[in-house]
Structure formats: C-alpha cells, structure tokens
Amino acid sequence: MRMIDIITKKRDGESLNEEEIRWFVDAYSNGDVPDYQASAFAMAIYFKGMSQAEAAALTYAMAESGDQLDLSLIEGVKVDKHSTGGVGDKTTLILGPLVAALDIPVAKMSGRGLGHTGGTIDKLEAFEGFRTEIDEEEFIQLVNTNKMAVAGQSGNLTPADKKLYALRDVTATVNSIPLIASSVMSKKIASGADAIVLDVKTGSGAFMEEIEEARQLAEAMVDIGNSLDRKTMAVISNMDQPLGRFVGNALEVKEAIETLQGNGPDDLHELSITLASHMAVLGGKADNEAEGRELVEKTIKDKSALEKMKQFIKGQGGNAEAVDHSELLANANITSNVVSASSGYVSGMHAAEIGKAAMMLGAGRETKDDVIDHAVGIELTKKIGDYVEKGEPLAVMHANHEETENVAEMIRNAFAFSKEKIEKPTLIFDTIY
Ligand code: URA
What we know:
Elements: H1 3-11, H2 18-30, H3 35-48, H4 52-63, E1 79-83, H5 91-100, E2 106-110, H6 120-124, H7 136-146, E3 148-152, H8 159-169, H9 177-190, E4 195-202, H10 211-227, E5 231-238, E6 246-247, H11 249-260, H12 266-282, H13 289-301, H14 304-315, H15 321-324, E7 334-339, E8 344-349, H16 351-361, E9 377-380, E10 387-388, E11 393-399, H17 405-414, E12 415-418, E13 428-432
Parallel strand pairs: 1-4, 2-3, 4-5
Antiparallel strand pairs: 5-13, 6-9, 7-11, 8-10, 8-12, 9-11
Helix pairs in contact: 1-3, 2-4, 2-8, 4-9, 4-10, 5-11, 5-12, 5-14, 9-10, 12-13, 16-17
Uracil binds next to α9.
Family: Belongs to the thymidine/pyrimidine-nucleoside phosphorylase family.
Domain Pyrimidine nucleoside phosphorylase C-terminal: 345-418
Enzyme class: transferase
C-alpha cells in the first residue's frame, strides 16, 4: 500500500476501507509514514470528512496502537464517563461515588489539566496522600474492593492518537468532527470501558462553542461507540459559564463533597444526577433514566454516596477525614472580592476567561510542567441571571500571593450585563442515543 494513494482517495472524497485506515495508523506510528504525508491526510479528512465506518475503523486502529486495559477481572458492566472539557467541571468526583454506591464499577483513567480546563487527577491530589500512579493489578483490585478507582493515564495508551493529535495541533486540523470523535473514543476503548456516557459541552468555555457542532460531535461519538459494541450515549450540556460556583482544585473538591451531602448548587447537582442516571441505565441497574434518577438520588439521601467517596479516597491513600472536615484540604492565605463596575443582570460570562484567571492564580497549568497550587481559585458569587449592584462582589479570589489586580480585571471583564431581566440558562440541551 502507498500513502500517496490513500491521501489521493480521501482528497477526492472517496471512502477508505478498514485495511487502508489500519495500514495508515500502523505505518504512521512506526515512522514509515512521514509527518508531511500524515498532515496532508489529516487536511483531506478535515475537508472531505469520514463516514461512520471510516471513523470507527480509525478509532479501533488507534485504540489498538498501544496498551489496552483488560478490565475483564472486574465484575459488572464497567461504565465510563467522558466530558469534552469545561471550567469548574467536577462531575467525575460526584457521579463516581453516586454510581459506585449502586455497585456499578467505576474504573476511571483520568488526565491532568492544561490551559483553562482542570483535570480530575489534579483535583483528587488536593487530598493529602492521594495516589494516582497505580499499576493495573492494584487498579483492578481497588475497583473490585471499593467499586471505584481513578488512575492517571498510562504512558502508552493510544500512542497513535498522541502522535496524530500533536500533528493536528500544529497543522490546523484539530477541529474536524471525525478526527476529534475518533481521538476521544480511541482512548475510551483502550481504557477498557464496556459502556460510555459522554458529556459534550457547548458554549463559551467549551471546545465546541456552537450547539450544532456539539450535536454533530456527540452523534459521531455515539455512532462510533455503538458500532464498536460499547453502549454509548451523550448529553449535550451548557458551558456558557463555569459549572457550580467554584473553580480551583481544593475548592472544587469541597463543592463536590457538598453536592454529595445534598447541598450542591443546582446546575452541578442536576448535571451530576443526570449523567449518573444514564450510567445507572447503561450499567444495567435501571430500565430508564427516571428509574436511574430515583436510585441515584437515594444514594445522596441515605449518605451511601458520601461513604463511598470516603472509601475510595482512603483506598488510594488519601486523607478521607477531609470528606467530613473539608478544612483539612488546602486553604489559600488571601481572599479578596472582585467587585462589579456596573449594576444589572448578569447576561453572560466568558467561561474560558474565568478558567484562565484561575490558572493565573496558580490553579492550572500553562505548560505541562507547571506546578499547581491546590488551594487557590475563584468563587463565583454571581452567575447568569443574577442581579448585581455596582460595588457588589461578582467573585472572590482565593490566592497565595498579593499581585492579583490583573486577575481581578480579567474576572470583571469576563462578565456581561443587561438592564433587562435574564432567565437562568438551559443546562441540558439534548440527549443522544
Ligand atoms: N480531545 C481529544 O482527546 N482529542 C481531540 O482530537 C480533541 C480533543
């Protein structure tokens, strides 16, 4: 087979067969296909797209390009959740214990944060002693014992995707629906999931700013998952403002604990319950979402989800006492208000800018080697639809250094106001099976 023939076919809008796609993935991984040909191929896909069968073949070949987690020693249906990334998204910390309390095994590989979105691993490391570098044997044993474990991503998971994603990043070919869908799904398949619930975000803090693009991405991922025999569904949710009220690692952990205690903010509570209900359905514990919701809500009321959180944190060496005593989590030394320069209803918020402001306080990484400060972050005291008087706080910065005026300005500028009353935004736009 020759790479030039594969590029030509795709450039001319023809479909590639499974053999051709696998040949490309193998040859590119081995270094037999140079970056310039892979770039031309990615650009041809960007313009001509891929059929569902082509995207599924690309996903499967990339999933098989490196290590694959074998979770067959874990009993039950392993349901994974994936979010396309957002600001203040701490749902994994909530719905993990919610579904584990229903005896659905949660075996999750998670990443660290980069740029304006945070990573679950960073949040969990706000618990003193929490270990995320665990080998496969211990991971399986932890899930079998506690029904929940979260590990950092293995070094050799989907190397073909890693190489192709890095190339796409510098060749203006990231924003292709079949390439994003196969990239995300290859990692889910290699992580051993039997079923997958996707949270596809749309809005100012999301990868897909427009709802129609988010829908196309969700449909592409659901099609790929189902055609590879993984029960897959997606929820399209709003990321026009951060989820919940807190952005920053220990602050988000505290908010997740409050949600498990039944005292979380409405948007975070509702999205977590919705995703967990779908996980209960795919995990075989409920026949439909309403039934799943009833089961999941019960785990909050009877505190079994909170107990599950403690068991999970302890199992991975973390200080589980912090679940009941959140003052044991890192606290920042300085808190200061960001006051509003205008009066009116909050009509919009640039979620990505809030994420960047939190990063500048030290809560996130600009480059992958940056060290993060778990204590710092932002508390939003106003969200879309709330009324604010000039001089009233919009947010509180939790910082460990004094020079925060530029961050305060960034936060202020992230807000938009209206004199007219503004409705609370829709949280969940659609559900796709
Ligand atoms: N996230 C991924 O994992 N892959 C993409 O292609 C885009 C976002």
